Amino acid sequence: MKLSKFKYKLPSELIALHPAYNRDESRLLVLHKDTGKIEHKIFKDLIDYFDNEDVMVFNNTKVFPARLYGNKEKTGAEIEVFLLRELNREQRLWDVLVDPARKIRIGNKLYFGDDDLLVAEVIDNTTSRGRTLRFLFDGSYEDFKKTLYGLGETPLPKFIERPVEPEDAERYQTIFAKHEGAVAAPTAGMHFSRELMKRLEIKGIDFAEVTLHVGLGNFRSVDVEDLTKHKMDSEQIEINELAVEQVNSGKKKKKQICAVGTTVVRTLETSVSTLGTLKPFEGWTNKFIFPPFEFSVPTSMVTNFHLPLSTLLMMACAFGGYDRVMAAYQEAIKEKYRFGTYGDAMLII
């Protein structure tokens, strides 16, 4: 499977800059993967496709305000710092990306906030853009975290070309977000409202939760034509005993196992037994799913409309069938669906 097969022409005006007014009222394209049939619905109509004891699996990761703007010592040059992950709590060490990278060297100090509220020192130079920072802060860990996140901004992807607005703090997050650690939202989950969750619950749908802390690998471009040579960034995942029990019980009863988002698909397919059942797991995954791929766990999937050449589009094509998904994308463009993080949704069933 070649990278060039995932190229398509996306009119820039179809990239959503804002979310739908109500979470569950974005549009929903339903693709029946066995027949290729396409239906046009509203997201809350999702309930009509599921029955008692079907299982929906959600990613309960929580996005933190990962984007900081600071200034370099002496020159005062503006530097954007993107927090990736905390390396050491006691020493206040963080893995970060910096932009522009060429101006930042080991030993440089960076200042953040009014009156230099927070100072960081560059202590490692891992890749062309990656750095390790030590934040110099005397107070408690709680005060440090509060200060750091107070200076941070909601990390909207760069293709949403507008300033961050106050509503983004709530809307670039699912309503079931619990475990902090993601630098990008699991976007398919953002369409679920409390009202829809309640209606699904009343209908007897079982909710399972897994955790995958979404990293920037989601947006990293694929630089090789031969997809077997692409390496995904590792992301931290957890599948607990309860989720395993819920999913395997649903499988045993031949019920739908609906993965809400590409991150959930990747998590579920990372930890499968030889019998095709889900196993508990805590660790890291760099699983890259592209066509052809034999899925063991999910039977249906909710996902957004992804940008050309993205690994997310590749996974959707693996799940729904390359020809059918690409045809559905052409239909979505024709019908002016909204694409990207804040865009409309697709149910592949």
UniProtKB/TrEMBL annotation:
Gene Ontology molecular functions: S-adenosylmethionine:tRNA ribosyltransferase-isomerase activity
Compartment(s) of residence: Cytoplasm
Primary location: cytoplasm
Pathway(s) of this molecule: tRNA modification; tRNA-queuosine biosynthesis
GO CC annotation, single: cytoplasm
Catalyzed reactions per annotation: 7-aminomethyl-7-carbaguanosine(34) in tRNA + S-adenosyl-L-methionine = epoxyqueuosine(34) in tRNA + adenine + L-methionine + 2 H(+)
Claim: Calcium is one of the keywords in the record: no
E.C. designation(s): 2.4.99.17
Keyword annotations: Cytoplasm, Isomerase, Queuosine biosynthesis, S-adenosyl-L-methionine, Transferase
GO biological process, one term: tRNA queuosine(34) biosynthetic process
Residues spanning the signal sequence: none
SUPFAM superfamilies attached to this UniProt entry: QueA-like
Complex and partners: Monomer.
Similarity comment: Belongs to the QueA family.
HAMAP family: QueA (MF_00113)
Protein purpose: Transfers and isomerizes the ribose moiety from AdoMet to the 7-aminomethyl group of 7-deazaguanine (preQ1-tRNA) to give epoxyqueuosine (oQ-tRNA).
Name the UniProt record assigns to this protein: S-adenosylmethionine:tRNA ribosyltransferase-isomerase
Organism: Labilibaculum antarcticum
Gene name of this polypeptide: queA
